[in-house]
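Narrative progress, year one. The postdoctoral researcher (J.K.) led the effort to move from monomer predictions toward full complexes, under supervision of the PI. The following entry was the first complex the group processed end to end, covering 949 residues in total.
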Amino acid sequence: MSNTELGDAGTDETNTSSVPAVRLTGITKRFGAVVACDSVNLALQRGRIHGLLGENGAGKSTLMKMLIGLVLPDSGTIAIDGTTESIHDPLTASALGIGMVHQHFSLVDALTVWENVALGDAGRLDPKATRGRIGEIAEQYGLVIDPDKRVGDLTAGLRQRVEIIKCLRRDPSIVIFDEPTSVLTPEESEQLFESLRHVVAAESRSVVLVSHKLDEVLHATDDITIMRQGKVVDQRRSVDADARTLARAMVGREVSLRSERAALGIHSLDDNGLDDNGLDGNNLDRADLDGIDLEEGATATGHTFETADSDTSNIAPDIGPTAVPVLRIGKAVVHDADGVIALDEFSLEMYPGEIVGVAGVEGNGQRALGDVLSSLLVLSSGTVTVDGAPVPTGKSGAMAKAGIGVIPEDRHDSGLVLDMTVAENLVLVDQSRAASRGLIDQKRLNAFAVEMIEQFSIACSGPNAPMWSVSGGNQQRVVLARELSQEPKILVAAQPTRGLDVGAIEYMSHRLETAAATGVAVLLISSELEEILELSHRIIVMHSGRIVGEMPRAEANFEALGLLMGGAAA
Amino acid sequence: MTAVDTAIDSGVRPSRTRHGARFSEWIALYSMSVLAALVLSAILVEATGGDWRPVVNALLDGSVRHPGRWGETLATAAPLLVVALGTVISSKAGLVNIGQEGQLFVGAAIGTYFGFLIGGPGPINVVLILIIGAAGGGLWAGVAAGLRYWRGVPEVLSTLLLVTVGGQAVAYGLRWEWLLLAPEGSRGNRNQVSEQLATGNRLPRPDLFGNEFPLTVFISVILAAIVAFVLSRTVWGFRLRMLGRNPRAAQRSGVSETRYGATALMLSGAFAGLAGAAMLTGGGFAFGNYQLVPGFSANIGWTGLLVALVAYEKPLAAIPVAVVFAGLRTGSNFVSGTGVESRITDVISGLLVLALLIPAAVMFLRDRRRARAAATERV
């Protein structure tokens, strides 16, 4: 690990001055108990592209947001061209010549390219001058575009070009690109990096490329800073780096250290519901005993049950050559709202009783995968089959009816109705257990809710408590209770432990393993490698909507997964 | 109205303390805003050279005190309530139907047309007109539903714009004898009026203590109870509420947005159409005297929408709210007799309506803020 600051070591002939364009010193930012950035030092040179690499939540976005004034640092200094500045809002940043191209587009589809470019301007609209400026930029940086085209008709790559032009026309001397290639095809990415070179070479600008893709960071940058859990763990020149070292530095140590994370106090910002309600570890154990009858389920399906504690020896269920997949996704293609491809000929087969971990940096199609299995997205092509019977995609309720339970990535999005009661949320998918002849039977609904509340140790004031009054961890338990009570054949758990505290994480892991032991095929989608390695029998890695690698748990390690997640060949 | 609110709520709301707090909040809010409106009105009357005391007297005389007036008020409240009930249904599904005025008018017109076309014995003919009127209003809202679910046109726009289209269409129908216009002999010197319903083809108007009102008063209260029951106790109501509160959760759970949303919007229109048909067959001083005329809908659709808004999406709460709005309407007819300029009385009734709307809006915003805060706090 070379922690020497690149700025001081910079003797490259492309440097026009020895004073770095930006010098961040000891920048720290806390959000509650979580340290997003921990005394980060970083120097950006003129005329060079600086790659900022890290996993989700490593702190890279927060760091850049402090540079453009969207977030204020708790401590530390920012010096621009050697002068210490206080950047308290984006306007100040803009005045200092700092511009950012955001990951998500902020364009108006109905307007033309030049209208979008002129959108943020004060004063009178000057179409001629704006068009002229777009022409200049196009020529200077190779960002060719027709200023009179409607933005809604453009491809994702061209839309991003509009975003870049919007940023460049203010002539910033420091430009930040936040995950610019996440919406681009490889060819478009190639073009982008080419124009980035132009941007840097002309008038010796300084460019930051925020990314989690090893490949592009290696090829498109001059210097690399790697962040993990808010800290800078490595800084080096791109010529001295290779994918393997970067991957290792990015995902970190080999061991699964959930308990260590707890000791460090890295857990949910605000999920104190469990403690408030006196649900400690003891209660959890009791709850487990009250849960699904493990013995019966295990014998019935012929699988051995593993407790959550033995996380290193996940024994995969016996999948013989005659086994029939319970879920089969065949060459699924999905386009998102922006027309970007989210799933690209994605194929997967799952067998009863196995936990398949889907690893990958977020934004590589995992959300689309979850949404397809929740009947929220229609496939452009491809099939989903459950137990050999095809299930229509995007038809309301079809997936749930076919036996696919879902713990969604964002429980507020499709998992819960916050304005309804806990009891009502427990029968959201299937009201039949609390209804007869089209009428809701309040007594049966209450009885069922009380049973679930007890079985899953949901801390709430009762079945009639509004869902929004329940803490996040317990909301997650409501989702879990409902989905498991449906006795699904397949359970999709997308980021099931996100935002939960340690006790709740253990509980969730245990429940998922129990479900698998009773013959449910569990699809665990997670951006946390520890979680995947701890629970899965089989691991697949997603990148750009495709499966780029698949391996049994025994053969998986951080380095191999890290490389695959970064899009490098295994 | 607050008492009713809390009564309906008790099944849903969790804690008694929260409950009590809400109750006093409502009382305080209503007292403050109504008082403010009254003071402002008094100042306005005084400033324009009038005296506020006779104005208040006239308002009370016109709505309840004068002989026969509370019957008139109830007769006005009935269609308001029916319109409001329909609005509650579409709101529960998360849809904003603001075209009740048009749905009511079109429903009444279609009811009239088929009522005369089909004929039949009196009582059957009345029921026929009510049913066909409801169907007509439902179909008119169905146009908006079709636009919404096939072409993605927001129902806020389509329902509103269809009010004008519906008004024009009915006015056209009133110009042709083969459509709605009464035959030469029975229309007097008026040239845009439908034939009058025969005495046997009208809703009965019972007389209580010298107050006469049509049967629709009872029908509307029964409907309110039915709507309240369906929304809170049936699977259909459950799924409709799910759709309104979280369409994505509903989509995953098998509640088809198209099917449930379109049904709710059409039901909402059907209630407005039923209100129109009830106004036609129930008669009354304010409502066209058993025949269809231009402007027949008389703002009942718009006011019914306000009733639903003030009643805060609660069917039973809509009953007292409808009576209050009806009282304002019948009362202000008398205010003009006090010598106060009619424009001033318009402003006064406007102020009072506003005073009734503000608490609901305040509570809505506050509840939403609380729910959001709770949601983000406890993620």
